[in-house]
């Protein structure tokens, strides 16, 4: 039976980790993630989990410890954000390259300089091609549910890849919301017992991890990694179906909102999707056919499925909470454009950069984008493809 609570996103994810009771957690504090691991470490101190909590000197060390513990044969978690994720950069590739099923909530935060501790998507976007699976969350409930599902996805014997669970800093991590907790035994049974694969501590079957690999095999190894990634979407959907039976909450590779008969639409990640849905309802009341697509599985990116869901639109705005300096357009826009590239008939695309460094995303910003799309759908003319919104002139 579900338990209804009012909690922050950090608390919701920490409680999911408590219910799962991993073997090892190595973490280092960084705002706005600190509260999450502080809460989880309290569970460790109070004996509510049997987790070995390792306090390290940096995020690079945290991921290094997680890699060692996972390779040894343990169920392993950590959490970080912003500059902490950036400091892990080298070790992210090691974790994924060794196919270690580490789960890491990432409380999305901006990167310096100048120093800013608030939320945007620059951190996870910078790490999007590190070989990790990425799940994104609109609210505390989704962050909680994605965390539970992440273990099943990461630990699938056909996958064995690490997973980031992304949630917006402060907006989700520190805001109190109504969510539903599953019973502890339900989560335990859903996640199941951890199954090891070639653990270092199996002394009867010795293995080595991370040996030198030269040009004669490195490329084949990387292609094999890509082939494993191609299997991830099916596993994500299978796990989501099982989770729906347990919780009644439905998840897919992405969510659509009033999109099927829409003529114009927007694509947006995480917490800003909620605000956008409210504005879409207002436009619908005025007879304007508009819809939304919110990616959930961002890596590997489901290009074919997303492109097929968007190709019927006349005009589409992709909103990015991160910029790709020197790359012309935002990172989400680039993936959406790629997903539509092969279709003869496709929408006219525009890109809006919003909410950097924690700048509020307001209903008026969604209205601005939608009003522009209405004009583009009528005239077929675009004034500018990429624009910063909510920025002072």
Features of the shown structure:
Rossmann fold; 18% strand; 393 residues; 14 helices; 6-stranded mixed β-sheet; 2 domains; 15 strands; alpha/beta
Q: Mean pLDDT, as a whole number? A: 97
How far is it from the N-terminal to the C-terminal residue, by CA? 52 Å
Strand segment tally: 15
Structural class: alpha/beta
User: Count of helical segments?
Assistant: 14
By CATH, the topology of the largest domain is Rossmann fold
- Helices and strands, in N-to-C order? EHEHEHEHHEHEHEEHHHEEHEEHEHEHE
Residue ranges: pLDDT <50 for 5 or more in a row?
none
- Assess the beta-strand content as a share of residues: 15-25%
Which radius of gyration do the C-alpha atoms yield? 21 Å
Q: Which architecture of the largest domain would the CATH scheme give at its second level?
A: 3-Layer(aba) Sandwich
CATH top level assignment of the largest domain: Alpha Beta
Count of the separate structural domains: 2
**What does the overall shape look like?**
globular
Largest beta-sheet details: 6 strands, mixed
Question: Helical amount among residues, as a percent range?
Answer: 40-55%
Q: Would you give an account of this structure?
A:
The chain has 2 domains: 3-247, Rossmann fold (3-Layer(aba) Sandwich), CATH 3.40.50; 257-388, Rossmann fold, CATH 3.40.50.920. The chain is built from 14 helices and 15 strands. With 393 residues, it is α/β, with parallel strands linked by helices.
